[in-house]
Amino acid sequence: MKPFYFISLLLMLFAVAYDAFAQQETPPQRRTRQRPGEVAATDNSPKLTERAKIKNEENSKGPSRVVWLREMYRTIDLDKENNAALYFPVEPLGDRVNLFTLIFRLLADGKITAYNYLISGDEAFVDKEKLDFEKDVLKKYEILYTKQGSGENARFVVDDGDVPSAEVKQYMIKEGWYFDEATGKFDSQITAICPIMKREDYGTGNVTQNGLFWLPYDAVRPYLSQTLIMTSDLNNAVTYSIDDYFTKRMYQGDIIKTVNLRNRTLQQQVGSDDPKALKLAQDSIERQLQAFRQQLWMPEDSTLVASNSKKAKKSDASKDEKKEEKQKQEKPKASKPEKSSSTPTRSVRRTR
Predict the structure, then answer these.
(1) Can you tell me the distance from the alpha carbon of 264 to that of 256, in angstroms, rounded to the nearest whole number?
(2) Is the Cα dihedral 303, 307, 309, 310 positive or negative?
(3) DSSP symbols for 19-81
């Protein structure tokens, strides 16, 4: 019996040693805390099909003959109810992601290119203003990440909890209103988008606001068209894409600047910090857009149409009356019988 117990003891020790060795080979790991090279490359951003690329090329074609254009910058505050669809969910919930998480993943996977946010707040989509995502975003804002590859093929892996989407509570967009003479169309389109981060300093409690980068809207459009969002509290079905949200103008934005010769903001043009004066200037620009639209086509006013129809009926009735009077005047008079001669005609029989 002793050899049997001895062999059983050896097998138990061997099993314990093998388990310990296996745990050392595959320890539990967290992606953002690993050293470079220990994580398999993953692609979390949407993939584009050839059909989506062709459709994006068609949608990216601008108006062919613009004879009138008004460009302006708006801020979209995500604390407002109409704009909350771009903010929630803050962290990915199944297949649902918010706008900044989608943009962040696309930049981390190297699928789109961002451009520096200039001091003037304008955008410049040129090579010298291309953003270094690792230096100007990940390191600057102390975001934990893992780097895969180098150079143009470099990709960055960031845990969902480390993406600062909760701090991006505002966006700036560049919007252009135009009239296309070729199609007779008066419409608007978004040409650029910029996420704005609001970060609180836990030591002092001060909140700093920074524009992160500019993105050409046409570059992110195909990915936005594949990402569905919930746009209503009463209807929880995700039937609209982010691209639909922008093209249908479902957002609520305040004008902060119009493109002008002196490149001045609306507040600088007003020359006052009074919110009421700024609001009046914003409303004035909105009225100018509506006035230009109304000058292009005759407004369809039901009261105006009704009054015109009444006038037309009255004019027709007066014409008929005049026609009848004219016919009465032109009606030939009945000829009167000729008067008999004063000399009586004598009978022939009486003369005989």
Answers:
(1) 10
(2) positive
(3) HHHHHHHS----GGGSPTTSS-----S----HHHHHHHHHHH---S-EEEEEEEEEEEETTSG
Six-digit token string for 271: 């020359």
From first CA to last CA, the distance across the chain in angstroms is: 192
- The answer to whether 65 and 184 are in contact (CB under 8 A) is no
160-187 exposure pattern, b = at least 16 Cβ within 10 A, e = fewer: beebbbebbbbbbbbbbbbbbeeeeeee
For residue 99, give the nearest of 82, 113, 85, 109 by alpha carbon.
85
Per the CB < 8 A criterion, the answer to whether 111 and 123 are in contact is no
Q: What H or E segment, with its residue span, contains residue 185?
A: strand 185-200
C-alpha torsion 30→36→40→41, nearest 10: 110
Q: Higher pLDDT residue, 52 or 178? A: 178
* Angstrom distance (rounded) from CA 216 to CA 220: 7
Amino acid identity for residue 178 in this structure: Y
Could you give the CA distance from residue 50 to residue 170 in angstroms, rounded to a whole number? 33
Greater confidence (211 vs 3) lies with 211
- Do residues 173 and 76 make contact, with C-beta atoms less than 8 angstroms apart? yes
Coil vs helix vs strand at 201:
coil
What CA–CA distance (Å, rounded) separates 257 from 264? 7
pLDDT above 70: residue 200: yes
**Other beta carbons within 10 Å of 146:** 19
The model's pTM: 0.72
Average pLDDT, stretch 280-309? Answer: 76
CA–CA dist 309, 312 (Å, integer): 5
Q: Which two tokens mark 51?
A: 């059909």
Instruction: Write down the mean pLDDT value for the chain.
Output: 82
Give the CA count within 13 Å in the CB-facing half-sphere of 107.
Answer: 26
Mean pLDDT to the nearest integer, 205-225: 95
Q: Mean pLDDT: which of 14-18, 195-199, 327-331 is highest?
A: 195-199
Question: What is residue 151's predicted lDDT score, i.e. its pLDDT?
Answer: 82
